[in-house]
Structures are given as structure tokens and as C-alpha cells.
Amino acid sequence: MTAERSRSAAPLVALVVAAGVLLGLPAGVLLHRRLGGGGGAVERAVTLLALDALGPCAQARRALDKLPATIAHDGPALAATALALAMWSVDHGGGAADLAAARVELALRKGDTALATKAFEEGDEVLSKKEARQKLAEGWIAKQNGQMAAAKKAFTAVARSKTLASRAHLEQALLSDTGGSLLKKLTELDKQGLADATYHLARTVKRRGNAKGAADLYGRLVVLGATVIDPIDLVLEWADTMALAGEPDLAQKQIEALRAKRPEDERIVAQMITMAARAGDTATVVNLHRALVEAKPADIDRKIRFAAALNDAGDFMQAQQFLDDLFKANKEARNAAALAQLGRAWVTREPFRAKELFNESLSLKENVGTYVLLGELEAGREKFKEAKKAFEKALSLNPQLTGAQIQLARVAIAEGSLPEAVKRLEKVLGKDPTNYDAILSLGDAYLGLSRPADSAVQYEIAVTLRPGNLDLLMKLALLQLQRLARTDEAITTLQKVITRDPERSVAYYHLGMAMKDNGNTVGAVTNLQKYLDLAPDGEWAPDAKKILDDLN
């Protein structure tokens, strides 16, 4: 391997190996895969770095000496990334200016604008000697602070630079974000080999509903990309996208391998919770939250999230008891967030008590989520005027809040204003094509408008997002059977329900009826009899007995 190739590969190898070690993958295998073998000084240095974030390599030590302690001690993942950037700048003669700019970007990646500003001020002297680097850092900070005009001006100046033009074009594209135009620009920059463009392309493609394409991009980025993105965050995003792309088992294995290496990292548990919630596995969600509480029993926020998980699982009495005990033990725990969850625990049993708790929560602190909960409560009581008021208040606090838009659409459906509901929901899905609640509600609205075929399309999409939702599968099956006369499709859907829940009696009844319509007498008799075995006094038992007598 040439010396030039060794130098250019340095930051790339650092991230590859850092991610690989965290995942339990052999560093040598990753290095061989990426670099085709070889054993230059840089590869050996970075391998040591990955195996020990502050490894004994002299070159890594020299690079570390050039970094502020605030970066070096942010943890192994960020330290590895920062050291990769350091070695890149040392090898290419960029020196202090590149390090100063990297420090700003790392701080912004962490969402710490104050630290980024401090880093910029501390590096101002060296940055001023490299105008493009200085302007790039200025643009990042301006963007983070919402000063879009200043950010645009800074990035335009950087675009005239020979060395940083591609990065400037990326920032300009992200600022404009004009739908198809953004996708085109990100694709062009990805083809130029700009790893950060690949990252944003993956996120954009995922947001637009192409999880498979996004998963491929993330996979390429994890193995080949050199970015200032924390490797843990990158692998978690990749796993999440794989799950959406229809590979939940592979995604789960990836997450479990990561957790085995970093059991203390809460981001990994958070991703496990997200994936379990998406699969409808509320028991796993509750257990993961319980584990977080047990790890830090003094953490009130964790306890509130645990109560929320209990509510999500329908364990309302347990959630109520847990929060009542928490309030008795710690009066300071009776905050706005905890009161909102206590209100949720009372909704189905005493709605007036729930309303009092929601209003008490809002008196302590206005919160869009609590306004949505209040609106849902009022909608459930068919107090649609009050519900609209609560949802609109939530939107006034956050105009981009899709949840409130969806709830307003549901109110419109309940009131019979179906075209209004469709308009709201299609607008939401235009920005977020994989929003499960919007997809499901749009299916309901289409059904109300006597558009069963369009409704079925939405329910089928929803099933791919929540394959564990058997009620939704039953809803789709009945639509296929009763409104669309798609008997074969209905039979397939009902068989999926029975495979996952062999005790769901009503599925056997409808499967038997579907098979009867298809002329399959044996199948009809078998399934109708199974229905009667499971539910001898069920709603459809008299019909099932009569049909069985006729068939026999």
C-alpha cells in the first residue's frame, strides 16, 4: 500500500474499526475488507486506537495531544472519530485549522451550541488563516442558531474553495431542502464520495418511505464511510432502518451484539424500546424500561417513562399505583410529565379525574403532548369542540406536530367531514410517508368515502409497519371479504391471523365462511367447527351451527 493511500484511508479506517470493535467484529477482518490487506503504520496505529481508545500508538498520542480535552474525554466513540480527524489533518498538513473546525462540528453533532461557539472562539486565530474552514464553522453555528441567511452566506463563500466545495454544496442543499431537488443533489454528492452526503441521503430516502434503499446506504456508510457521526448512532440508525425494511431479526441481532459490547449505553436500550414498540411487543417495552429504572432508581424521569410504558401496555391500574407510590415517596416527582401519565392511567376509568390531572399538568407547564392527550380524552367523550380546541392549542405550540394533525383528522372523520380528514392526512403523509397512525386513519377515511380499494391499500401498508397488530389484520381481512369480494386474499390474511393467534375464534368463523364461498366444503366445515369449539356461545355460534347442518 502506498504512503499516500495510507494517509487518505486513516479517518476511514478509524470509523470502520471503531464500529467493528463495538459490534464485536474482528478489526483485522474489517481492515482487510476495506484496505485489501497491508500493514502500514497508519493502519496499525488506528487498529490499536480502536482496541484501546487511548492506545499506546505514538502517532495516535501525538494526534490526541493536539485535541482539547473536552473532545478526547467525550467517550471512546467520539474520541475515535476525533482522533481519526486529527490523524487526517496531521498527515495532510491541515494542522490546527482542521482540528479547530472538527471540534466545532463534533460539538454541534452533540447538539451543544455553546460548546461549538466556544470551540470556534478558541480556534479563531488558526481558523482565520484558512478562510474556507473558518466560514464553514461559521455556517454550522449560524445554522444551529436558526440564522439561515448568515449560514447561507457562509456556505456560499466556502463553495468557492477548491478543497471544501463539495461540503459547502451539501450544506447548501440541506438548507434549501426542496423535495426532489434535495434528493437529486444528495445523490450527486454521494456519487462524488462525500460520506456525509451519503448519510443525509440515507435519512432522506428513509423519511420518504424507501427503507430498503436507506438500509443499503447505511450499510455502505457503516463499512466504508468517514464521517463525524458517532459510530454507535450510525449503527443504531442502520439497524432501525433494516427493521423497517423487513429484516427485524437481523436488526435485532445487530442491536443485541452492540448491547453485549456496551451494556451501559442507554442509546442502545432506547433503540430496542423503539423496535419493540413498533412490533407491538409492549411486554418487552415495559421490561426494558423497568431495567432502566432498576439501574438508576433515583432517576425520576426514568420512572415517569416506565409509567408511560405501563399505560401504553394497557396496565393502567399498575401505572396509577406506581405513580401514587412515587408521589408519596418524593413530592418533587409530582411534576407536569408525571401528572400527564397519571391522567392517562385514569382515562378509561374516570375521565373527569383524568381531565383534572391533564389540566393540573398544563398549569405547571404547557406541553404539546399533554394537549394532545386532553384532546383525545374530549374526542372519546364526543366533545368534539373541546377536542379541536386542545389539538389546535398543541399545533399553536408546534405547527409541525403531526400527531395533532392526525387527531384533528380523526375528529373530522367522527363528525363526517371526510374530505377534510383526507386532506389533512395526505398532507401529513406527504412529509412522513411511513406515519402509521396517519396511514391507518387515511384508510378509515377512504372507507367512509366508499373507497374500499383505496382503504385496503392503506391498511396493507399499515400491516407492513405493524405486522404484529392482529386486529388490523382482521380489519383488512373483513374488508377484503365483505367489501371487495377478494375471497382468496381474505383467506390468506385470515390464515396469517390464525398462525399468530390460534385461539382467535372469530378468525376461524370468517375463514370458514370464506372457504364456503370458494366452494371448499371441507375447509369450511373444519374452520366453522373450530370456531364452535373455541366459542360455543359466541356471537356467530347460531349461524355457524346452521351452516354446518346445511353442509353436512
Q: Summarize this, please?
A:
By secondary structure, the chain is mostly helical. It contains 34 helices and no strands.
Question: What does this protein structure show overall?
Answer:
The protein has 552 residues and is mainly α. Among the domains are: 177-278, Alpha Horseshoe (Serine Threonine Protein Phosphatase 5, Tetratricopeptide repeat); 484-552, Tetratricopeptide repeat domain (Serine Threonine Protein Phosphatase 5, Tetratricopeptide repeat), CATH 1.25.40. The chain has 34 helices and no strands. It has helices at residues 3-23, 27-35, 41-51, 58-65, 69-72, 76-92, 95-109, 113-122, 124-127, 131-144, 148-158, 165-176, 180-191, 195-207, 211-224, 231-244, 248-261, 266-278, 282-295, 300-312, 316-329, 336-346, 351-364, 368-380, 384-397, 402-415, 418-431, 436-448, 452-465, 470-483, 487-500, 505-517, 521-534, 541-551. α19 (282-295) packs antiparallel against α20 (300-312) and α26 (402-415) packs parallel to α28. The longest helix has 21 residues, at 3-23. The protein is globular, with a radius of gyration of 28 Å.
